[in-house]
Automatic annotation (TrEMBL):
<dbReference type="GO" id="GO:0048046">
    <property type="term" value="C:apoplast"/>
</dbReference>
<keyword id="KW-1015">Disulfide bond</keyword>
<keyword id="KW-0479">Metal-binding</keyword>
<feature type="binding site">
    <location>
        <position position="111"/>
    </location>
    <ligand>
        <name>oxalate</name>
    </ligand>
</feature>
<feature type="domain" description="Cupin type-1">
    <location>
        <begin position="66"/>
        <end position="221"/>
    </location>
</feature>
<feature type="binding site">
    <location>
        <position position="114"/>
    </location>
    <ligand>
        <name>Mn(2+)</name>
    </ligand>
</feature>
<feature type="binding site">
    <location>
        <position position="167"/>
    </location>
    <ligand>
        <name>Mn(2+)</name>
    </ligand>
</feature>
<keyword id="KW-0964">Secreted</keyword>
<dbReference type="InterPro" id="IPR014710">
    <property type="entry name" value="RmlC-like_jellyroll"/>
</dbReference>
<feature type="binding site">
    <location>
        <position position="121"/>
    </location>
    <ligand>
        <name>oxalate</name>
    </ligand>
</feature>
<feature type="signal peptide">
    <location>
        <begin position="1"/>
        <end position="24"/>
    </location>
</feature>
<comment type="similarity">
    <text>Belongs to the germin family.</text>
</comment>
<dbReference type="InterPro" id="IPR011051">
    <property type="entry name" value="RmlC_Cupin_sf"/>
</dbReference>
<dbReference type="GO" id="GO:0030145">
    <property type="term" value="F:manganese ion binding"/>
</dbReference>
<dbReference type="InterPro" id="IPR001929">
    <property type="entry name" value="Germin"/>
</dbReference>
<dbReference type="Pfam" id="PF00190">
    <property type="entry name" value="Cupin_1"/>
</dbReference>
<dbReference type="InterPro" id="IPR019780">
    <property type="entry name" value="Germin_Mn-BS"/>
</dbReference>
Length: 232
């Protein structure tokens, strides 16, 4: 094979690798913003599943949200409330890759085990005392157990939850607790473990969950009969 042919093949290989690497990450925006539009009737271009408003119609209110200074309703059975500010609540977040939320807890209030499939999370405690932690994914050795990383947090403390890992926050104090969280996604997604397992519609076959959790089918059916509500 001639050297020119070798160089050509090498050049093509480099281009192919570069394309694969570029395709493996989100593209950088080529515009100042893409405020998501409520209507899709006349739009033809979608960015991250959303249509963009005409930039000439965008106003400052598209980048503004008010209300995180107000306590959330913590009278639910979980004793907690998550006030989300995702793209759905703040249209200007579209394509920016960030979101935030306020977490309120009554004493013994719980933000139950859940995970965010599209984002890591940073939590900052503002008031009260929280027990927070996350559980690692299945270890390579099936005889080993997943690890729990958990800590008691006080006002001013910061804790990080890696993307996709199950985590929780529990108020272990005698007073209400408040925290702010931030995500590196405009729509982190939320999968609440107990709710999706036992509260799906239609329900998962009881035999499947009984075998998975190593419990009796009658207990599974009882759990499926409960009103599984969220806290957001």
């Amino acid at each position: 094979m001639k050297s020119t042919e070798i160089h050509l093949l090498l050049f093509i290989a480099i281009l192919a690798i570069s394309f694969l690497v570029a395709s493996a990450s989100d593209p950088d925006p080529l515009q100042d913003f893409c405020v998501s539009a409520n209507s899709t009737t006349t739009a033809t271009v979608f960015v991250n599943g959303k249509t963009c408003k005409d930039p000439s119609t965008v106003t400052v209110d598209d980048f503004f949200y008010s209300g995180l200074n107000k306590p959330g309703n913590i009278t639910s059975p979980l004793g907690s409330k998550v006030t989300m500010v995702f793209e759905r609540q703040l249209a200007g977040l579209n394509t920016l890759g960030v979101a935030t939320a306020r977490l309120d807890f009554a004493p013994n209030g719980l933000n139950p085990p859940h995970e965010h499939p599209r984002a890591s999370e940073v939590l900052v405690v503002l008031e009260g005392t929280l027990y927070a932690g996350f559980i690692t994914s299945n270890p390579p050795d099936p005889n080993d157990n997943s690890r729990l990383f958990a800590k008691i947090l006080y006002p001013g403390d910061v804790f990080v939850f890696p993307r996709g890992l199950i985590h929780f926050q529990y108020n272990v104090g005698d007073t209400n607790a408040v925290a702010l969280v931030s995500f590196n996604s405009q729509n982190p997604g939320v999968v609440t473990v107990a709710k999706v397992e036992f509260g799906s519609e239609p329900p998962v076959l009881a035999a499947v969950l009984a075998k998975a959790f190593q419990i009796d089918e009658s207990l599974v059916k009882f759990l499926q009969s409960l009103p599984w509500t969220g806290n957001n």
